[in-house]
Structures are given as C-alpha cells and as structure tokens.
Amino acid sequence: MNENILMKLERVTKTYQMGEVRVEALKETSLDIYEGELLVILGPSGSGKSTLLNIVGGMDLPTTGSVYYREMDLAQAGDAQLTRYRRNEVGFVFQYYNLIPDLTARENVELAAGLVDGPLSTDSVLAAVGLGDRMGHFPSQLSGGEQQRVSIARAMVKKPRLLLCDEPTGALDNLTGRMILGLLEAANREQGCTVVIVTHNTSISDMAHRVVRMSSGAAAEIIVNSEPLSPERIEW
Ligand code: ADP
Ligand code: MG
C-alpha cells in the first residue's frame, strides 16, 4: 500500500426525501481512499455503508459534496463520464451476486469483458477463481460461493482499478466466506487492485489495511491496522 490518494471524498451528504420524511443517509463524510489499499467500511445496518459505496462507484450521486477520482469530480460529472468511469475503472461485487441467470458462468464474465479495451482472458480469470471446470454452468447450477466466485471473475476480467464489494460474504457460510475474502485479498495483493469491502461483520476488519467505522451516516473513526490478518486466520 502506498500513500497516493486515488479518491477523495469531501463533505459528502446524501439525503432521501420520502414524502414528508427526510432520511439523511450520509452526513458530511470525508474520506481518502489510497491507491492499492484494502479498505473495510464497517458499521451496523442502516449506517450508510451501501450509500457511501454506491457513491464511490458512480452508481449514485451525493446530495452535496465532492467525490474526486483522480482529477474528476464524480458529483459534477456528466452521464457519459460516469458510465465510462463505472465501466473502465470499477468492478462491483454484491451480496447476492447479481449474475444473469440465463447466461453461463463464462457468458456472464464475457459480457463484462466485452465492455472494455484489453480485458483479461475470461477462461484464465475463471480458472484463477477455481471454476475452470464449471464455466459452462448456469448460476442456478452453482452454489452461493461458486456464484460469488463468478461475480469476482466478472469484476476482475475488466482489470478494474477499484474493486467495490457490498457485503460480499453476507449470504455465505464461514468457510466459503473466508475463501471469497481470500480471493479479494489476492486481487489486492497480486493485481494491486484497490479493494473496498463493506460489511457489518467486525471480524472482517482484521484483514484490512484501514477500517472506516460508520455510525448513523458518518465516518466516525478510521483505524489503521499495522498487521492485517490473512483471510484464513479470520474467525467469525
Ligand atoms: P447500510 O448499507 O449501512 O445498511 P444504507 O446505506 O443502505 O445502509 O442506508 C442508510 C439509510 O438510508 C437507511 O436509513 C436507509 O433506509 C436509507 N436509504 C437507503 N437508500 C434509500 C433510498 N433509495 N430511499 C430512501 N432511503 C434510503
Ligand atoms: Mg447495505
């Protein structure tokens, strides 16, 4: 991990107006994300983690504040710029995988590869997540952990600068969850990908370089781990 800032969020807020009710999902949150780090965003349900991650990923815009990716402020970017950013710079991994059910594992990954210039090879990325022999299978023929591995392959085939993961182990048993965390850690360590993992699971923060603790829509605390644990040593 070096100290170059990849993203700089400054006083970001997000307010949802639901009829009479205003929900302040994010309250003036500032955060730097360093190039090449493994960052965990930790907090209870409803604390604003997904809102923050979606803004970082260019899937949602803040109500106020700025979100710099290098020189570009996502908060001020046009639709075409945001689309290019999501497509070329960001890989997303979700709790429930979000695979396309009537495409095979290989086709799901190929679809993502087709969006960018110079993707990795679909087959080698699927082999790297241990699914070399399951490429022709549909999501319904794969276990939850296997589907999550396809979704990691789908994200990584684009060679993203940023890998954003929203509760990636939330639907998995411990053993499978650790395996998934191992793949995310490898993407960080071997590919140099900047990885952000959102979780409500305190144990997962042990593998982070830094932990942002969210509370009621704000980054309440940032903790630096001098000795991150390897995923196979995490207990929960
Ligand atoms: P977390 O991921 O930490 O569980 P979220 O970021 O999903 O939290 O939500 C933070 C708060 O914002 C919650 O109170 C949630 O109900 C609210 N919220 C999130 N998305 C919306 C939305 N699209 N419309 C209205 N309220 C929302
Ligand atoms: Mg969430």
Q: How many strand units? A: 10
Q: Beta-strand level of the residues, as a percent range?
A: 25-35%
Could you estimate the helical fraction of the residues in percent?
A: 25-40%
For the biggest sheet, the summary is: 6 strands, mixed
The neighbouring-strand order within the major sheet is 6-7-8-3-9-10
Bound molecules: adenosine-5'-diphosphate, magnesium ion
Give the integer mean of the pLDDT values.
96
The backbone outline, from C-alpha atoms, is globular
Q: H/E order of the elements?
A: EEEHEEHEHHHEHEEE
Question: Could you write a compact summary of the structure shown?
Answer:
The longest helix has 18 residues, at 174-191. With 236 residues, the protein is of the alpha/beta class.
Report on the architecture of this protein.
Helices cover 28% and strands 30% of the residues. With 236 residues, it is of the alpha/beta class. Helix 3 packs parallel to helix 5, helix 4 (122-128) crosses helix 5 and helix 5 (144-156) runs parallel beside helix 6. The two termini are 26 Å apart. Residues 49-50, 166 line the site of magnesium ion (MG). Magnesium ion binds next to helix 1.
